[in-house]
Design brief:
Two copies of one chain form a homodimer. The first copy, chain A, is mostly helical. Chain A is built from ten helices and no strands. Chain A is elongated. Chains A and B meet through helix 6, helix 8, helix 9 and helix 10 of A and helix 6, helix 8, helix 9 and helix 10 of B. Chain A binds a DNA duplex (19 and 19 nucleotides) through helix 1 and helix 3.
Chain lengths: 223, 223
DNA sequence: ACCTGAACACCGTTCAAGT
DNA sequence: ACCTGAACACCGTTCAAGT
């Protein structure tokens, strides 16, 4: 790839991410091109279709969230190590896994609510793209690990999986969509309620088993 | 309104509802007109814009859900009346309010998941329309009444409002969107989890107060 | 190789001509 | 009054001409 192509690709991705976040994913390609300072045709040289452009940005954001989750996971593991090693100085071990899991979910919801395009993309499209699939799997893996930690705390019921967590993040971000940003932090209310539903105290048997990776790949093919 | 106009309006609404439900809200107006057997221009005689057509259908569906909720509410009230009157023959009074509330939420989610347009409309648009606002308020009122019943049972925490319920219905329907209909009844899993979060047993204090009607009207103006 | 803007097809919306 | 399809503006996508 030539140097100017490289540079244009970056300009394009940045401009597109900003425009999508501000105005939703129906901003015109022309407008994005202007903001990036490149020709309209150049957009389609880098991404065969507008949807593929959205897809690339979406995958990037999922990867960012996965990285956040992995950092949180290292935190709980390190803290656990300290606990078993010395047994002093650390906070209450019983809630650490739950805190990390809630922080992860909060980060996920927060990323979506500030970003109109993310909201819309998360809902429907772009799941077929292998790039997005890979990011999704990484996300589910770290979610599963964080859930396992919280389970060990006894603060999360044992029939909840990493895939459940990813889907609940999605659900929580959509909860307040009808209100726009009229009540800025409102999503925390619903994430809290959902998190209470994850606790063992109120757990009732679930009517349907958790989805497996198979179902996600099947959905990707079907779309 | 002339008789043929009346007839065309009905044909249009039915065709549009079907097309939207099957293919999402980006089906072309031309296609809807063909299915309705009317001219493209006639669509715009009945609804000034495509979005207003969507809005009308959306409001209708919200009204349908409100009616379901009101029927459920009459059911619990009637049952409660029998209970206090005779005190025999009825089922366990303690869970009736909870059952009705869950049935209401299930009906709401079910209506959305089978309907691609409903999903997308619920997410973003059309909240400004007064018709939709009225339907929304009616929905929130019946949700509030059902919640009150469940509270009396002691099966729902007391910091949950009707507006919360409406937003949670929205959230639950979006939860499984990434999976399409790969796992048909999967939404029941997440509605169950959320419902467990509504029970007093696991209730933790919520970080943000419930939204008021004011916020919804403000959001409507802003959109 | 890559960039560009004019050209094309499609879709929402308008409107002049019909009944 | 209401219906209709041709006409318009706009947007995603393509491509011939440039460097």
């Amino acid at each position: 790839m030539r140097a100017d192509a490289m540079r244009n690709r970056r300009l394009l991705l940045d401009a597109a991410a900003a425009e999508f976040a501000e105005h939703g994913m129906d901003v015109s390609v022309a407008r994005i091109a202007v903001r990036a300072g490149i020709g309209k045709g150049t957009v389609f040289r880098h991404f065969a279709t507008k949807e593929q452009l959205i897809t690339a940005i979406f995958a990037d954001q999922l990867d960012g969230l996965a990285a956040t989750g992995e950092a949180l996971l290292r935190g709980t593991e390190a803290a656990a190590g300290v606990d078993t090693g010395a047994g002093v100085g650390a906070g209450p071990a019983v809630a650490r896994g739950a805190d990390a899991l809630l922080a992860f979910m909060s980060a996920g919801v927060e990323a979506q609510v500030g970003d109109r395009a993310f909201c819309q993309a998360a809902g429907a499209i772009a799941r077929a793209d292998p790039q997005v699939r890979r990011a999704s799997q990484r996300l589910a893996a770290v979610a599963e690990a964080l859930t396992a930690e919280a389970r060990h705390d006894g603060s999360v019921r044992d029939d909840v999986t990493g895939h459940d967590i990813v889907l609940l993040i999605n659900a929580a971000s959509q909860a307040t969509a009808p209100l726009g940003d009229t009540v800025p932090g409102l999503w925390r209310r619903y994430l809290s309620m959902m998190f209470d539903g994850l606790r063992p105290a109120a757990a009732h048997p679930l009517p349907v088993p958790a989805p497996e990776e198979t179902h996600f790949t099947a959905a990707a093919r079907h779309a």
